[in-house]
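YM 10:42: Antibiotic biosynthesis monooxygenase sequence, as discussed on the call
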Amino acid sequence: MAEIAVVAISVAKPGCDEQLRVTLEGIVGPTRNEAGVLQYDLHRDVQEPRRFVFVERWESQEALAAHAKSAHIQAYRKAVADWVEHAEIRVVSKIA
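YM 10:58: structure's back
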C-alpha cells in the first residue's frame, strides 16, 4: 500500500463562509472514523477566511476512493453546491 496525501481547497461564495464552515466541520468526525484515514484536518486561511483547506493522509488510493463514495461525502457535495465559488483537490505522494 502506498500512502497518499490530499490537499482539498474550497472557497465559499461571499456571505456563505459560515454555512460552509459548519458543514465542513460536520464531515470531519465521520471521515476520521473511516477505514484507511491517517489524517483529516480542516484549516481556514488566515488571510482569506472564505478559503478552507483540508490536509488529508490516506493509507491508499483505494481508501480515498471509498471515502469519495461515502454517504456523508455525497450528502456534503449536494449541500454545499450553491455555497462554493471554487473547489480544488490535489492528490499527491510524498517524495522526500
